[in-house]
Predict the structure.
Amino acid sequence: MIRYKFVARSPTGNIVKGYLKLENEEELKKVMYEQNYRLIRYRKAKEKKQIFTFKKITKKHLVSLAEKLVMLLKSGVSLSESLDIAAESFTNKKFKEIIQDLSIQIKKGKTFSSALYEYPKYFPEFFRTMISLAEQSGKLIDILNYIIDYYNYEIQIKKKIISSLFYPILLVILGLAVLIVVSIVIIPTFASIFKQMNVEVPLITRIIINISNFIKSNFIYILIGLIIIITLMILFFHTNKGKYINAKLKTKMPLIKNLYVNNIVTRFCKSLEILLHSGMPTVICLQTSANLIGNCYVEEELYFSIDLIKRGDSLSQSLESINLFPKMLIQTLMISEKTASLDYSLQILAKIYEEESKHRLQRISNIIEPLFILFISGFVVLLIVAIFVPLLSMLDGIGSF
């Protein structure tokens, strides 16, 4: 396949620029002719391999695309034309090129979902799966609205986490900066003074001075050691075993366990409700939801519950057996299965756990902030005691002469 850069005039008279991957120049001309585009000029484009990508395609881009498609499709514009119009509104060149290529692929006879599967790095599995369901059910606008709601929730919860943890992280950074400055500059200065004046220092002062001397003497080695340890941890957590251990730890660690599980439950309920509403069988809905969780440990547990459903268990029974989801969720699902209101119950549960996640996040932030302040205050008090007690003793000795 050859990548061509082209400039053409659309049937409406607009100038369209973009890229297409085709077999040869004849196929490019054929595609343009079939779509009533007048090819102005074209050339072979070099494939650029970028090591660093500064303009990442985010969930906000996907939400924006879905919103534009909903607006245009409701106005009666065809899908391919909607994609062409939507592409012009994006400043991200890569995303613009991808959307234009999707439009061309659809015009050539491909379905929207099959065209999306050509770009798995840019369109997540949830997006691709939902578009595939939309094509099967004929409810593209409804499914696009579901996609918008789903990603908006993900964006909001991420913003909430960042804003809640910003202050504690800032405190940690400031605390480390103070610790380094005190260890390398302040304590050695006072230690030198005490040594010159032959001042007898208490045990706590000697301990702090020894620690300071060790840090100052071995600062480069400590820094290199920390970098090596962090690098090895990152590499390990990118292996399959490391990913599994990390995923399991998130569901077991105190303090963050309940928050993390609540987020998983919210995502699970939202995705499962959307999938069930589309008319898919329960087992396939569960399999798809398991893949969308983003946690390999939880995914493995959910596949175990899917096996139980295949053997005849209900959804609530199978989820109860994995001992991961809250009891309220299990009990509500048990009742909703009897009343045939499962999708409605999942919608309500998603809202409940979404609100609970927000409250838990705020509570964790409220706990962490005073703990860090207390830690820094304790360090300052310890420093005052260790430095100023012998300093006062030295001043008293000077005053007695």
About this structure: Residues 190 and 387 are 7 Å apart (CA to CA).
